[in-house]
Design a protein that fits this description.
The structure holds two protein chains of two kinds.
Chain A: H1 7-21, H2 24-40, H3 43-56, H4 66-75, H5 86-95, H6 103-115, H7 119-127, H8 139-145, H9 151-158, H10 163-167, H11 170-182, H12 199-214, H13 236-243, H14 248-259, H15 264-272, H16 274-282, H17 287-296
Helix pairs in contact in A: 1-4, 1-5, 2-3, 3-5, 5-7, 7-9, 11-12, 13-14, 14-15, 14-17
Chain B: H1 4-7, E1 13-15, H2 25-33, E2 36-42, H3 53-64, H4 66-72, E3 77-82, H5 92-106, E4 111-118, H6 124-140, E5 144-147, H7 153-166, E6 174-176, H8 184-189, E7 193-197, H9 206-216, E8 221-224, H10 236-246, H11 251-266, H12 274-278, H13 285-290
Parallel strand pairs in B: 1-2, 2-3, 3-4, 4-5, 5-6, 6-7, 7-8
Helix pairs in contact in B: 3-4, 3-5, 5-6, 9-10, 10-11
The chains are: A mainly alpha, B alpha/beta.
């Protein structure tokens, strides 16, 4: 097996989601294409079906299904299809059928799809990164994708996708997190944001905040989430600045950052501001709840 | 606000031939303000010859990728046609390789035809690859956007149509572009769509265009800008519409030649849904505001160019 998960189980699970959304005719046309491909193993027909997917099946968002979503996560840790368009799901499913015996051939084939991909195809391909065989081989491909300025494409890698946390090296990971703040995407949806936080990233984010402050631009309170654990003499003044902020959300972010920290000054501050401390302890104030108030505000 | 915008206020336009790759974001902003809601970017010659198949591949993928995204930032729906242009058909070995990768792109979402293809110098190689691409269009059931030559235009136009008919293409699937007073009758009589490029100095002027619509009516005629890297005008379609309205042409007819006919012709690809651009006429602020390099960070989504202060 060249996959790091149970590929047969994944195929079945995705099929199950597909047949519940698309019509019987659409499903049987996909089946037909699949059996023809499995007979002939021709790259041309594989590519064509991948490209044609939006014409073969209806357009809609795959309905949410908690149990099945959990099932997907159980098969491939962290894999998530939240808000996926059905042709994106079908493309992921289709990609699971390319032959994997020869590593070089496999990479060449997937790479050729990347090279000619339009926007929705890019989204489908990058969203499928955690489902590829030889996942190690796609690190550079993921890092390349993160250089995009096309928002949907960036989000397909950075958000709700376990691949970056699993496979990107620290530099590429840090770059992704920084760019997520720069592009103002929903950073709480970055899988592994807390686990892969690191001291270097904390300094990078602090520098970024200073740049924004000097330009009189706002800084997302969520920026301090990956920083909290690494508070030290250099970073704590940033947190103190947040305490002085006129915005309640900045103060909350400061408190949440302090709660993650073992730095003495941070702990002392929390003790002095018992109300927020209690909210954090009770789970009433979290980074997620902070994000929600930001979205409402 | 320029005066002519008042005349066409509330009207929507579709520019079926414009090379946005060669244009700036200022153009997108002004086009959106003038009522252009959708456009077609035909693959063309970038001003100097390409030397390898990979640069063609990257160009085609930018038409279905980056440029499409860039347009969406301004609330404009971007479609394209994909093809090997006539000038570069003259490099035979490269043209062969390009022909091999065309099918990879032709059936992608938002690709509404094969184009722009046809004659430049009317060489043997131009004809060879024009014919090959007509076959591709037939196989993939896509409309064809035909470029007609600057020199010896009338004969070149007629020859292009004859060849298309020889290959069994239905004239209603073929848009013959860059027409003028000399070619329009032949094109319409044969049942092809007639495109007119309003382009300063070298092609049609919009005053002449007004006369053509007065004489030939609005059936199967469409106006485009073909704006590119030369001195050209991305607002040619709305400006021509304004001149037509001012000259007493009925608004229904203006709408046909600056919007509806292009949609009817190219939606035969199955890839144009009018609802995609008439309902999303207003820009998605979340996309526009929060993302790209074009409108990064805090930049005001509507940039006021006349202001001294840049922030």
């Amino acid at each position: 097996m060249n996959y790091d998960f149970d590929v047969i189980a994944m195929q079945r699970m995705l099929e199950d989601r597909l047949v519940r959304v698309i019509s019987r005719e659409e499903w049987s046309s996909l089946q037909q294409r699949l059996s023809q491909f499995q007979k002939e193993k021709k790259a041309g027909s594989f590519n064509l079906t991948f490209v044609l997917m939006p014409r073969l099946i209806k357009k809609c968002i795959v309905p949410y299904d908690r149990k099945s979503d959990q099932g997907l996560k159980d098969i491939r840790h962290g894999f998530c299809i939240q808000n996926w368009e059905v042709s994106r799901l079908a493309r992921s499913w289709w990609l699971l059928h390319w032959v994997t015996e020869d590593k070089i051939e496999y990479f060449k084939q997937i790479n050729s799809l990347f090279r000619s991909a339009e926007v929705n195809e890019q989204v489908a391909l990058y969203g499928s990164l955690p489902l590829f065989a030889y996942p190690d081989e796609f690190r550079l491909c993921a890092a390349e994708g993160l250089r995009t300025n096309i928002r949907q494409v960036f989000e397909s890698i950075a958000l709700n996708n376990p691949y970056p946390a699993d496979y990107l090296d620290e530099a590429a990971w840090n770059q992704m997190v920084l760019k997520s703040f720069f592009m103002n995407v929903a950073v709480n949806q970055i899988i592994g944001l807390d686990q892969r936080a690191n001291g270097t990233l904390a300094y990078i984010l602090s520098d970024y905040a200073h740049e924004r402050w000097s330009a009189n631009r706002s800084v997302s309170p969520l920026l301090w989430r990956p920083v909290g654990k690494f508070l030290d003499e250099r970073l704590f003044p940033d947190i103190e600045k947040l305490f002085q902020s006129e915005h309640e959300s900045d103060k909350k972010a400061a408190a949440l950052a302090c709660a993650q920290s073992s730095f003495q000054l941070a702990k002392e501050w929390l003790q002095r501001n018992n109300e927020m401390n209690e909210q954090i302890m009770e789970g009433a104030l979290t980074w997620e709840s902070l994000e929600e108030t930001l979205l409402q505000g | 606000m320029p005066n002519y915008l008042n005349i066409i206020k509330g009207m929507k336009f579709f520019d079926p031939h414009i090379h946005m790759t060669s244009r700036t974001t200022d153009d997108y902003q002004e086009m959106a303000a003038a009522g252009i809601v959708a456009l077609i970017e035909p693959a063309f010659w970038l001003g100097q010859p390409r030397t390898g198949v990979d640069t063609f591949r990257d160009y085609y993928s930018s038409l279905v990728g980056w440029e499409r995204f860039r347009a969406s930032q301004f609330g404009i729906k971007h479609y394209c046609t994909i093809g090997l242009n006539s000038k570069e058909a003259n490099n035979e070995s490269l043209a062969e390789q390009v022909l091999d990768i065309l099918p990879l792109f032709l059936l992608k979402e938002g690709v509404v035809g094969v184009g722009e293809i046809g004659f430049d110098d009317r060489t043997v190689l131009e004809e060879k690859f024009y014919r090959a691409q007509l076959e591709l269009a037939k196989e993939s059931n896509l409309p064809v956007q035909v470029h007609t030559p600057h020199r010896d235009k009338k004969n070149g136009t007629i020859r292009s149509m004859e060849i298309a008919l020889e290959h069994g293409l239905d004239p209603k699937m073929v848009i013959v572009d860059h027409n003028n007073e000399e070619t329009v009758k032949d094109v319409l009589d044969r049942g092809f769509w007639a495109g007119f490029t309003i382009y300063p100095f070298t092609k049609m002027s919009n005053k002449r265009m007004v006369e053509i619509v007065k004489q030939y009516g609005s059936r199967k005629i469409m106006v485009n800008s073909a704006a590119d890297w030369g001195i050209s005008d991305p607002l040619a379609v709305p400006k021509t519409a304004a001149l037509m309205v001012e000259s007493g042409i009925k608004v229904e007819d203006v709408l046909l030649v600056t919007y509806r006919n292009a949609i009817d012709a190219f939606s035969q690809s199955g890839q144009i849904k009018e609802s995609d651009f008439i309902t999303t006429n207003s820009v998605d602020q979340s996309q526009k505001y929060e993302g790209s390099s074009i409108l990064r960070g805090e930049q005001n989504p509507v940039y006021v160019k006349s202001s001294l202060i840049i922030e």
